[in-house]
């Protein structure tokens, strides 16, 4: 049973046993809310088969439940499958949460440097373009940025980046995690809204910033969990700049957002 919000269901098994099982997710009839599934790239029928496979689950309206079914081939090991569930968002700082027998530890950052990020986007008339640690697209251009992905080398353990985009005002969002592509290619569809957030037990140790530009408008500052669009909501996205920087050392580490469901929120309206 899940409260209203967004969650990452991730296949976390470390074993490479070819007889390991898989996990399938379905909407259960228990609860009054509705459930939407946003599978990662290569995921079919919301079924997780290997380490790193993930599905983002959105619960709307009221509490709802997800039916989790494990499948094991004949001769497989029933204990070989591990599923990690984490709510996306940010929350107040409390005591560190214990996970998998290990306490979340705060890393010390004497001289914080931005993480190295690689952005790929499909830009009108230019096709796929890849940049590192700079603008994806031209802030002064009117060329559509029709879709994008954001990835990084040496991604910190316990930290992930989630983002969404819409291709029309009020349309259904596409949601992805770091490295996954959202949007379209060669369909002449504009991206009219975007949002970004950090997730994971180490999310409180990093700061998300940057800017996005919609055609004909000045840059908008990225704020975690906030959905950004042009003045009318129909202007097309033309450029993105994302910065993720470690925070300075703190006296006590922030908790996982999973700990406080009442204050957790993602992609809220402006």
Would you give an account of this structure?
This protein is mainly β. The protein folds into two domains: 5-87, no CATH class; 117-259, no CATH class. It is built from no helices and 20 strands. The chain has strands at 5-11, 22-31, 34-39, 47-48, 54-60, 64-71, 83-87, 98-99, 102-103, 117-123, 127-132, 145-152, 160-166, 174-177, 182-183, 193-199, 206-214, 220-221, 228-229, 237-246. The strands form six sheets. The chain has a four-stranded antiparallel sheet, with no helix packed on it. A four-stranded antiparallel sheet has the order 11-10-12-15, with no helix packed on it. A hairpin with a 5-residue loop joins strand 17 and strand 18 (220-221). The radius of gyration is 19 Å and the shape is globular.
Topology:
Layout: E1 5-11, E2 22-31, E3 34-39, E4 47-48, E5 54-60, E6 64-71, E7 83-87, E8 98-99, E9 102-103, E10 117-123, E11 127-132, E12 145-152, E13 160-166, E14 174-177, E15 182-183, E16 193-199, E17 206-214, E18 220-221, E19 228-229, E20 237-246
Antiparallel strand pairs: 1-5, 1-7, 2-4, 2-6, 3-5, 8-9, 10-11, 10-12, 12-15, 13-14, 13-16, 16-19, 17-18, 17-20
Summarize the structure.
By secondary structure, the protein is mainly beta. It has strands at 5-11, 22-31, 34-39, 47-48, 54-60, 64-71, 83-87, 98-99, 102-103, 117-123, 127-132, 145-152, 160-166, 174-177, 182-183, 193-199, 206-214, 220-221, 228-229, 237-246. Residues 90-111 and 249-265 have low confidence and may be disordered.
């Amino acid at each position: 049973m899940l409260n209203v919000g967004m969650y990452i269901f991730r296949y976390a098994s470390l074993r490479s046993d070819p007889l390991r099982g898989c996990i399938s997710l379905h909407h259960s009839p228990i609860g009054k809310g509705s459930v939407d599934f946003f599978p990662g790239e290569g995921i079919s029928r919301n079924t997780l088969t290997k380490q790193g496979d993930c599905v983002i689950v959105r619960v709307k309206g009221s509490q709802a439940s997800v039916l989790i079914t494990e499948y094991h081939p004949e001769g497989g090991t029933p204990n070989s499958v591990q599923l990690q569930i984490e709510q996306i968002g940010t929350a107040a700082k409390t005591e560190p949460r214990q996970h998998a027998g290990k306490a979340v530890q705060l890393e010390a950052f004497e001289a914080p440097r931005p993480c190295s990020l690689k952005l790929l986007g499909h830009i009108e008339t230019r096709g796929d373009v890849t940049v590192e640690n700079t603008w994806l697209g031209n802030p002064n251009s009117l060329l559509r940025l029709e879709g994008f992905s954001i990835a990084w080398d040496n991604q910190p353990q316990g930290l992930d980046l989630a983002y969404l985009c819409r291709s029309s005002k009020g349309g259904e969002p596409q949601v992805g995690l770091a490295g996954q592509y959202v949007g379209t290619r060669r369909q002449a569809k504009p991206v009219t809204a975007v949002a970004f957030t950090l997730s994971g037990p180490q999310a409180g140790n990093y700061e998300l910033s940057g800017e996005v530009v919609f055609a004909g408008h000045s840059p908008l500052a990225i704020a975690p969990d906030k959905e950004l669009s042009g003045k009318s909501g129909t202007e097309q996205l033309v450029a993105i700049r994302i910065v993720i920087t470690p925070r300075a050392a703190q006296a006590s580490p922030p908790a996982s957002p999973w700990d406080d469901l009442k204050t957790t929120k993602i992609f809220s309206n402006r």
